[in-house]
Amino acid sequence: MIGAGFGGLAAAYELSRGGLADVTVLEKADDVGGVWRENTYPGAACDVPSNLYSYSFARKTDWGRRYAEQPDILGYIHDTADRFGLRDLVRTGVEVTSAEYDESAATWRVAAASGETFEADVLVPAVGQLSRPAFPNIPGLDTFAGPSFHSAQWRHDVDLAGMRVAVLGTGASAIQFVPRIRETAKRVTVFQRSAPYVIPKPDRAYTDAHRAAFRKVPGFAAAMRGLIWEISEFFGLALTKLAPLARLMGVVASANLKRHIKDPMLRAKLTPDYPIGCKRVLFSNDWYPALACDNVDVETEAITEVAPTGVRTADGRLHEVDVIIYGTGFKATEFLAPMTITGRDGRDLHAEWAEGARAHLGMAVPGFPNMFLIYGPNTNLGSSSIILMMEQQARYIRQITEELASGGVARAFEVRAAVEQAYDAEVQSRLDAGVWTTCDSWYRTASGRVTTNWPGLVHEYQRRTRTVALADYEQVLPERAAKKVGA
User: Which residue, 183, 217, 285, 404, has most beta carbons within 10 Å?
Assistant: First the structure.
């Protein structure tokens, strides 16, 4: 596996269970945790209820809040890795630079930045979609004289007390850290490109009674998890099939805005101009109250450059600031970059994906035998918990690994091109008919193709991946690599 976040650890657990495979997880950082290790900004928390944002095989009964905060989630990952012996499978400080399929042996050769190499029968990239920070393409980013950093690379050594702070972006991270930093900053200027839809977050701290019920009442935790799952699936219908439900969500978001923002000019700035769901719907109870504070400004003029003393906008104004924080998201559509992945017959994965990443069921790519992605193309969710998707992918990959282990000879499974093409055509057709193609967002490539999101519900994905259809794959034998024998 490449990556020791939620996805990589789920795969490590599944493939090592029962001694099925000799598993090694390569992690470039110094510890497990993935995005929850990296994102330590003030207020970092999950927008999926904590009872659902956990592994099915490692239920946690002592969450601090209904929507867990970053320290609690990272602690859960650490505890789970220790409890199931997964940390012993992880090699930290190993940054993978390339992986190449060896046709003569039906194995993958993986190279690290240190020069170390690894060999594996099965390659499972699990680097996620939200692991590489994205910076805006604005002139002068490097000229700013003060501290500047991305929200996913938070500078805890920079004291924001009494400082003038520019925040670029109004996405899921910014709506969490802006309310926190404005409490001590002299002034916060939020530069907004487009206004998000923001819905109240039904968050609260769990009481001792709650935790006791989760721990002691038989079936209570499982029942709550199931209920939350079904509720999240219901709201997922608003993004896929039920337009009236989407309109209802829009009404809730509008009421939330009107409740907190009384200034008509500011309210106009914060009113989205695109259909709800096209971009990520956000959850917060303190975003709008923070923006209404006297020491917070919302700037909607386009940024033309970053200067040594601040940020200049299209109207010619220079907004002088002491610190710049980029809440500008991640390179979600650049799957597996910057690694070089070379498949059968010298295929370059990024060349194959020049028009946008694609994979059968989000996992298998023609020409790349025995490589299966976790959280790959078109497996992100607009609602519900991504961990449910990751676990299902890990179970699917286990089935293929079991088949490989039962053969007694070295071989590889490669998804048939026609199968992948038919699947991709179906997914893209469904996406084209949905809300995610009605505006520009991080869900889409520059060409407009949606490469991130799954167009259905988690239940559908689980049903379609519950049992591997071996007929979807061809067997590639090392001694006759160029000839593929039907599975």
Answer: 404
